[in-house]
Amino acid sequence: MAQDFTGNDYLSGQPYGLCDRCGEKHRLKSLRKEWTNLKVCGPCFDPRPAQLDPPQIDPNEGKPLPDSRPQVLIEATDEQANYDPASGRS
What we know:
Elements: E1 16-18, E2 25-27, E3 32-33, E4 39-40, H1 78-81
Antiparallel strand pairs: 1-2, 3-4
């Protein structure tokens, strides 16, 4: 239930604000900005869900090893493979 701004509860330099979620009156310095860009009171504060954060990836993932050399595959000739291209048989 929202409170009204009437009464002698004014303190110099400490203004009031309304919680964007519940509408209650709180000191402006006690309101917190949420990940949804709302200014809310402590009981209404909702932390950002972890599943909305991107996954953490190792910066070295997929990086080649220093001074590594790829394995060189040498193709076998028809004679080495015992293959007859005319008949198509091995």
